[in-house]
From TrEMBL:
<feature type="transmembrane region" description="Helical">
    <location>
        <begin position="328"/>
        <end position="353"/>
    </location>
</feature>
<feature type="transmembrane region" description="Helical">
    <location>
        <begin position="20"/>
        <end position="46"/>
    </location>
</feature>
<keyword id="KW-0472">Membrane</keyword>
<dbReference type="GO" id="GO:0098797">
    <property type="term" value="C:plasma membrane protein complex"/>
</dbReference>
<dbReference type="InterPro" id="IPR025857">
    <property type="entry name" value="MacB_PCD"/>
</dbReference>
<feature type="transmembrane region" description="Helical">
    <location>
        <begin position="373"/>
        <end position="393"/>
    </location>
</feature>
<dbReference type="GO" id="GO:0044874">
    <property type="term" value="P:lipoprotein localization to outer membrane"/>
</dbReference>
<keyword id="KW-1133">Transmembrane helix</keyword>
<dbReference type="InterPro" id="IPR051447">
    <property type="entry name" value="Lipoprotein-release_system"/>
</dbReference>
<feature type="domain" description="ABC3 transporter permease C-terminal">
    <location>
        <begin position="279"/>
        <end position="401"/>
    </location>
</feature>
<dbReference type="Pfam" id="PF02687">
    <property type="entry name" value="FtsX"/>
</dbReference>
<feature type="transmembrane region" description="Helical">
    <location>
        <begin position="275"/>
        <end position="296"/>
    </location>
</feature>
<dbReference type="Pfam" id="PF12704">
    <property type="entry name" value="MacB_PCD"/>
</dbReference>
<feature type="domain" description="MacB-like periplasmic core">
    <location>
        <begin position="27"/>
        <end position="152"/>
    </location>
</feature>
<protein>
    <submittedName>
        <fullName>ABC-type transport system, involved in lipoprotein release, permease component</fullName>
    </submittedName>
</protein>
<keyword id="KW-0812">Transmembrane</keyword>
<keyword id="KW-0449">Lipoprotein</keyword>
Length: 407
């Protein structure tokens, strides 16, 4: 057995003359354990929330989305669309026209996003997450129907069971004749029947209405222009590989984004928040480790004669340093091991039984989501090792300066 570790472990297990040092060592270990456990739990919750957001957005967004690099819309042709369909890994291609419009239902008005989609939109497995009220359909050419975000439905006080009231849609025309006195010449108007409400995420619920492509194309006078093309990837093909093929086919004039890139800002914010939480809790862990510094400093004073004996027997200052650094490491690692284990158990129980509730009755999930990632445990261990070394180094230096004449 390594001599410095042997002596350090004996110091850790033995009773100190001053009971206060023993108590301080145990408090140090408990502080490290609690800090480590909190770090593991909070990071796992952030991982769970990130996964939840991805799953909710993936339910509404396409696996791949093609947009023009310049301008909000672009012209499409049958040959160009067929070229995309023929790309290896592409299963479903959905044409999209999306823009802001004014909606009116009875005496209520609301500004929202009107998203026109081709008939195969619902075949992409949309709305798998969340809640649906009513019939999930887009109607026919003669009687188009709209799928409406629950928030929009709330603002407009809509009633799906009312067969006689239709949703009015208004869209401003290009100002060709600014001198007209007839306000009806300034906008396009059409009506559509509400068929269902969806609830996925507040951003979508409060801002989106899904309608058939031809209805939106005629209302907005888009012709062969589209704002985006949405792609569903065939099973067995990776999204990244299909994305690379589409970029090759489309060239530099178009961007191809996966679900993460469509909401890059939000996901980046979550990662930044997770990083700052990790740094903050690491500082709290460092404060808890100050007890290690004090307990080792007092132990160095108490064991001054023992240290002098070791030096008289030929021990070098390097060995004395190692003894106290390893003593601090034993205290910290004992606490960290307990903390990692307790953090794992708490996350496992939350994931299995959902003990801690979100407290939101209308939420898609009832309990806080958690997801444990081995890298979180790794970085937590690295943080503990670093903090332990910094907390133990100074007392070790003080102890190594003892001389044999101090006997």
């Amino acid at each position: 057995m390594n001599l410095s570790f042997f002596i350090a472990s004996r110091y850790f297990r033995s009773k100190k003359k001053r009971n206060f040092i023993t108590i301080l060592s145990r408090i140090s270990m408990i502080g490290v354990a609690v800090g480590t456990m909190a770090l593991v739990i909070v990071l796992s919750v952030f991982n769970g929330l990130e996964d939840l957001i991805r799953s909710l957005y993936a339910s509404f967004d396409a696996e791949l989305k093609i947009e023009s690099v310049k301008g909000k819309s672009f012209e499409v042709t049958d040959d160009w669309l067929q070229q995309i369909r023929d790309t290896e890994g592409v299963e479903i291609l959905t044409e999209v026209i999306e823009d802001n419009a004014l909606f009116k239902y009875k005496d209520y008005q609301h500004l929202a996003r009107l998203k026109g989609v081709s008939e195969n939109y619902l075949k992409q497995g949309r709305f798998n997450e969340g809640y649906i009220w009513g019939e999930l359909e887009l109607g026919t050419e003669s009687q188009p129907k709209a799928i409406i975000g629950r928030g929009v439905g709330f603002y407009l006080s809509m009633d799906l069971d009312n067969e006689f009231e239709l949703l009015q849609v208004f869209y401003p025309k290009a100002p060709r004749n600014a001198g007209t006195l007839d306000p009806r010449q300034l906008y396009s108007r059409d009506v559509i029947k509400p068929s269902a409400f969806f609830s996925i995420e507040k951003e979508f619920d409060d801002n989106y209405i899904i309608a058939p492509l031809n209805f939106v194309k005629n209302l907005l006078n888009y012709g062969q222009k589209r704002t985006s093309i949405e792609i569903k990837v065939k099973e067995g093909f990776s999204i990244s590989s299909v994305k690379k093929r589409l970029k090759t086919v489309l060239g530099e004039d178009f961007s191809v984004k996966d679900t993460d890139e469509q909401h890059a800002g939000l996901l980046r914010t979550i990662k930044v928040e997770k990083l700052f939480v990790f740094i903050t809790l690491s500082f709290i862990l460092a404060v808890a480790s100050f007890n290690i510094f004090f307990s080792l400093s007092m132990m160095a004073i108490e064991k001054k004669k023992d240290t002098a004996v070791l030096i008289a027997m030929g021990a070098k200052a390097k060995l004395i340093k190692k003894i106290y650094i390893k003593q601090g490491a034993i205290i910290a690692f004992s606490g960290a091991t307990i903390g990692l284990f307790l953090g794992f158990i708490v996350c496992l129980i939350q994931d299995t039984y959902g003990i801690v509730s979100l407290g939101i009755s209308s939420s898609v999930i009832d309990n806080y989501p958690v997801k444990m990632i081995w890298t979180d445990f790794l970085w937590t261990s690295v943080a503990v090792i670093t903090i332990t070394f910094l907390a133990s180094y100074r007392p070790a230096v003080i102890a190594s300066k003892v001389k044999s004449t101090d006997l």
